[in-house]
Every structure is written in structure tokens, then in C-alpha cells.
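PROTEIN–LIGAND DATA SHEET

This sheet pairs a single protein chain with one bound small molecule, zinc ion, given as SMILES. Inputs appear in the order they were entered. The predicted three-dimensional arrangement of chain and ligand is reported afterwards as a C-alpha cell string under its own label.
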Amino acid sequence: MENYFSTLNNINVNGKTEKKNGLTYLSWAWAWGEVKKLHPDATYTIYENASGLFYHTDGSTCWVKTGVTVNGIEHIEYLPVMDYKNKSIPVDKVTSFDVNKAIQRSLTKAVARHGLGLYIYAGEDLPEEENTPDKKAEKIFDACVSEPSTIVKPVGDGIPGKSLKFTCADCGKTLEPIPDSNGKPIPIRAHADKSEKMFGRVLCLDCIRKINSENANR
Ligand SMILES: [Zn+2]
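PREDICTION REPORTED AS:
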């Protein structure tokens, strides 16, 4: 049986995201529906504080703590309660609306740790200066070098010993070998497979950068 993470990770989330204030979000209701379809026993938890409130506070800022259990594995996510500029809201200004929003984002992120829509968060944990769209694309593709490639069929000859040709689904350009962040070329086939897994289609690096810059400023 296929690894449950890969199954969730392979679900195409394109068209299920929405953009708010420069950030990309996956709809929690949709994400949870997808998880429950495959894992009817999946559960989620919103952790209360000692006073039974849905947020935790250090006296100045607040955060929420949520957990999503799939396949017997719980991933816990802490998220600050933030305003529309993604700045922490002081505890005396926080509303139930703000807390509810943070809970949904936090749960969606916990689901992503199980695979679903994880690419939306790719690069988020990187330090600021490394978090440019270009660097992000490179980091993502660094991860693919070691993976065996089996998914994507090349177009064109595909004859062993001859070079395989892959075409970008968005712009039609033939894929060129691209260097990873250490300047080592990434095999085209590995690139194509990874792209297929992450974006549901084969994309050239330029088109991936375009998508990532739409998701930038996270
Ligand atoms: Zn392209």
C-alpha cells in the first residue's frame, strides 16, 4: 500500500487555494473533507488553555495550538494570532474572530504536515533572506535529486541513450537541466517527476518561479 503521506501529498490542490493579503491559503473545510474521505477515523483537536479558552497567551501576544491525527499520527501546530498584516495581535485586542481564523489556518497547516497541500508552505521556515522565490524553487528541487523517477513519461523519442525531452505544460518550453542551489545540475527527469507531484503537471523552472512568487512574502 502506498505511503499515506504520498497519497495526501499527491492530491492536486490547485484551484482550492485562496489568496488573502498576499498569502495563499488552502480552504480548511475542503482540506478536512479530503482527509476524511481517505481517512474516516482522522480527528483534530483544538487545545484549550487552563481557563478553557481556545487561545494561549504569555500576557502580551497569543497563539493557538491545534493537532490533526491521521493514520494514528498527530501533528501539532502552534500559530500566533495575527492581524491582516500578519503581525501578532496584542492579547487585549484579540477578538474571537481573530482566534477562529488562527485556528483554521493552524489546522490547515497541521493537515499539510500530513502531506496535503504541503507545497504551499514550502520554504516558509527558511530564513528571510533565503526566502526569495528563486531560492525557494531551488530548495524545492534540491529535494528531488535523490528520488527515483517513475511517474512522468517523456514526450519525443525517449530512446535510451538519447536525451529525454520534457515540455513545460504552461509555456511549452523544452526543459533544460537546471542547477540546484549548489550549482549541480538536477536531472531533467527528476525535475519533471517532482514537478508533476507538486504541481500536477510538468513545469519549467521559470513557471515554477512564477507560481512561487505568487506564494511569496509568506
Ligand atoms: Zn514554463
